[in-house]
Amino acid sequence: MIEISADALVVGGGLGGVAAALALLRAGRSVVLTEEYDWLGGQLTSQAVPPDEHTWVERFGVTASYRALRDGIRRYYRDHYPLTERARAWRELNPGAGHVSKLCHEPRVAVAVIEAMLAPYRGSGRLRVLQPYRPVGAEVDGDRVTAVRLAHRDGGGEITAVAPYVLDATETGELLPLAGAEYVTGFEAQDDTGEPSAPAVAQPMNMQAVSVCFAIDHVDGDHTVDKPAAYDFWRAYQPPFWGDRLLSWRCPSPRTLEIVERSFTPNPGDDPRLVEADQRVNPGDGNLWTFRRIAARGNFRPGAYESDITLVNWPMIDYLEGPVIDVPDAGRHLAAARELSRSVLYWLQTEAPRHDGGTGYPGLRLRGDVTGSADGLAQAPYIRESRRIRALTTVAEQDLSVAVRGDKGAVSYHDSVGVGMYRIDLHPSTGGDNYIDVACSPFEIPLGALIPQRMGNLLPAGKNIGTTHITNGAYRLHPVEWNVGEAAGALAAFCLDRATTPHAVRADERLLADYQHRLVRDGVELRWPDVTGY
């Protein structure tokens, strides 16, 4: 058994884990960072999802280090890609010109930028990255985690990591059950949270769908994949609230639940500069091709790209047959989610109704080289909902819902450690619920949501903070996850510097003010200007 140690152990190398590690490293601390997939970056990279961001992202509402990530992505394109001169001069370059985000891009670019941000700390020896490793056990002494056992994904011996602070930045809160930390999953009961959209009885196994994304382009030739073994099952599958089969262009509109028909036009030849990527104005999902497009060929010199590249994270790949957390058959469900995505691709290539009256788009080509996986799909499933700690503060729907808060805006917290904004956006769930999509006020991230009620040195650094099933729908997106991780890393560093604890920082006004001052110094925004939710 190999044993390693550092000032902090960050388990999980998604956006929250990377941000947590960077905050600790900037503070002069040593870090062990683990990740079970081949790429750091989580939902932005191994899960292949371009960033979901708010209206004001180009001006305010994100941390300085998250902005450095975004700036780095644009700089990477300008330094290494054959952009047209018009695209190169575009200050707010959107390489994919997707409607979902003002910065749609290929996941590998984000990997390169994240690696560059971490590179000097690797070189100095203060950062050790264990990859691909995942946690398999924890040793606990009372309310403290004393060690975490890590196993290589592909077999081999285990490593034991020891650190004064342990941060759980995994996609599903994997350390929480291993350490015996108190947590919740799924829907909480309305009597417990007071949330207008909550059910009367708690439903811990009712969780948001997971999705296995994939990238495609459209070129000459027949690129039809082999028929998936489960294709006939998925071809006939129809959720009761869907309005049609899952494999169709028809589905509920998330905001109205009206059954609508999406369009699909590969390579429409649109002007990338005219794409309005602002979900306050338009959710952008009318044409699925441009919705999450990650490379618009019009941004690149003629001949550089045969086709646009689009990222399939569409309603039809949401897997509803069962949760993948705290169930004995999680592996079976994850495999079935991948089979659903392969079936969607096969349906697109062979049976999807075309805009010209025909069926099937055999020219659609799976781009596994873009997602970096052997089977052509994203390396990792897109996990929307994690285990969530029982925290000192739990953010509830009525704290940020526009319908409840009105012009008062979201609740403001004295212990704010950052800001975020996204609609409360819940996909259909494993319990058979339709979309829940609620207008949201720009909100703050309370420190109390990052502190477990009991555990002393275990901190959440991702989607596992003190939100509910419902408010997780707003707090789960890319810049908020990054801000949460950065605040958690900075908190661990601050506690090490002051020989104190997270609980003491929140309880002591002077300590809290000093910690918040450090966050602001490092470019973390704690309050919103006067803006209105949507």
TrEMBL record:
This is FAD-dependent oxidoreductase. It comes from Nonomuraea monospora. The lineage of its organism: Bacteria, Bacillati, Actinomycetota, Actinomycetes, Streptosporangiales.
